[in-house]
Design brief:
The structure holds two protein chains of two kinds. By secondary structure, chain A is an all-beta fold. In chain A, 0% of the residues lie in helices and 49% in strands. In chain A, the strands form three sheets. In chain A, strands 2, 5, 6, 10, 11 and 12 form a six-stranded mixed sheet that branches. Chain B is mostly beta strands. In chain B, a hairpin with a 2-residue loop joins β5 (42-50) and β6. Chain B starts with a strand and ends with a strand. Classes of the chains: A mainly beta, B mainly beta.
Chain lengths: 117, 117
């Protein structure tokens, strides 16, 4: 079964607008971590934001925020004030269990975002 | 601070050959993990090494192997290459701290793009 589901088709976003990328996950482990990564055409995976399953507040990192709805098992990424440099593939990923001794991430298929001026 | 370095960046091999990819983690990071990225299967976990020991392993055949050296540098080897091994191979390193809000974030390199003809 898929652990991480990202089903949105490619998205075009107007510069300076906000965009929400959907991610749902599946796990029975009470301890897990959720990540969002950005992958531009160069190929490097760039870390954006992290949410731990026990974190009480939604994570924020600059223009990135994570809308964490634990009961729904969703971890949507919100990018505010889109910039041209935000054009990339965006991946949601999950690590099940505590992170010590475990760096195995399950990735979704990704969302393609194109920011237009 | 230097990031994760992967070499070579691009390489072309023919079926039946073998290939070795190298990854130098961020200084001080002891965990190195490898991922395969293909258009069809997406990002899949290969294996993880920590202090020269394989700690986690994904669902790949025995043709895929790796190792880690005492300086934390890692290599992965694919023997008897098949067309389906054409992919972007990403290496990630992680610092496992002793406390605080250490998310166990994975820092990725730019990848080695392997083409098998």
């Amino acid at each position: 079964a898929q652990k991480i589901t990202q089903t949105q088709p490619g998205m075009f976003v107007q510069e300076k607008e906000a965009v929400t990328l959907d991610c749902t996950y599946d796990t029975s482990d009470p301890s897990y971590g959720l990540f969002w990564y950005k992958q531009p055409s160069s190929g490097e995976m760039i870390f954006l934001i992290y949410q731990g399953s026990y974190d009480q507040q939604n994570a924020t990192e600059g223009r990135y925020s994570l809308n964490f709805q634990k009961a729904r098992k969703s971890a949507n990424l919100v990018i505010s004030a889109s910039q041209l440099g935000d054009s990339a593939m965006y991946f949601c990923a999950m690590r099940e269990g505590p992170h010590y001794g475990n760096n195995r991430l399950a990735f979704g298929k990704g969302n393609q975002v194109v920011v237009i001026p | 601070k230097a990031g994760v370095t992967q070499t070579p960046r691009y390489l072309i091999k023919t079926r039946g050959q073998q290939v070795t990819l190298s990854c130098s983690p961020i200084s001080g990071h002891r965990s190195v993990s490898w991922y395969q990225q293909t258009p069809g299967q997406g990002l899949q976990f290969l294996f993880e090494y920590f202090s020269e020991t394989q700690r986690n392993k994904g669902n790949f055949p025995g043709r895929f192997s790796g190792r880690q050296f005492s300086n934390s540098r890692s290599e992965m080897n694919v023997s008897t290459l098949e067309l389906g091994d054409s992919a972007l191979y990403l290496c990630a390193s992680s610092l496992e701290g002793t406390g605080g809000r250490d998310t166990g974030e994975l820092f990725f390199g730019e990848g080695s793009r392997l083409t098998v003809l």
